[in-house]
Amino acid sequence: MPKVSQQHLDARRAQIVEAAARCFARQGFHATTVQDVLRESGLSTGAVYRYFRSKGDLVSAVAEQSVAAAVPRLAEVLLADPVPAPADAIAGVVAAIDPFAAEDAALRMAVQVWAEALRDDDLGALARSGYRRVRGLFVNYAERAVVAGLLPAGTDTVAAGQVYFGLVPGFILQRLLLADVDPASYANGLRAVLAGS
pLDDT digit string (tens) for 129-158? Predict the structure, then answer.
């Protein structure tokens, strides 16, 4: 029997994760069955269970992929040189992850992950690790903004990073649930708030 290459194994696993993500985005975690994922992926039960023991493992893999996909998009904005002004940085971040502009359903998945992470300890640990990494980008941005003179000397950059990071879920929820905010209007609102402070 010919040996299967690691590249083939990785591609098959990615195929399953992408199929699960599409199902979860359409139906939610709880309504999606492994059978749904099998149909979506076009693979056999054995092929899926070779990589994932349970639907919970699939949820974790999709969640991990969603966070991992966001990191380079956020880093491109937050680590830009020269350092963008705070409102421009947030505008760039929300534009980079705008769920209506994105081709995938990663942000719909993010909202489900937030809810599921509150009841599933393993997923909670995974989410905390991923979101700490993401929040670290905002802390790094705040540190660079202080050096660039965009934030006052002596700014608590950890606290500033927490606040900047907190603006992103606010945008995501309003964008998905209300659909009456977009990256440009959100950035304009932030500029107005910062100018009045």
Answer: 999 999 999 999 999 999 999 999 999 999
What backbone torsions phi and psi does residue 191 show, to the nearest 5 degrees?
-60, -40
Q: Structure tokens of 49?
A: 């269970």
| pLDDT digit string, tens, across residues 64-86 | 888 888 889 899 999 999 999 99
Beta-carbon count within 10 A of 105 CB: 17
SS3 letters across 97-160: CCCCCCCCCHHHHHHHHHHHHCCCHHHHHHHHHHHHHHHHHHHHHHHHHHHCCCCCCCCCHHHH
Q: 10 Å Cβ neighbour count for 5? A: 9
- Kindly state the tokens that stand for 21: 């993500």
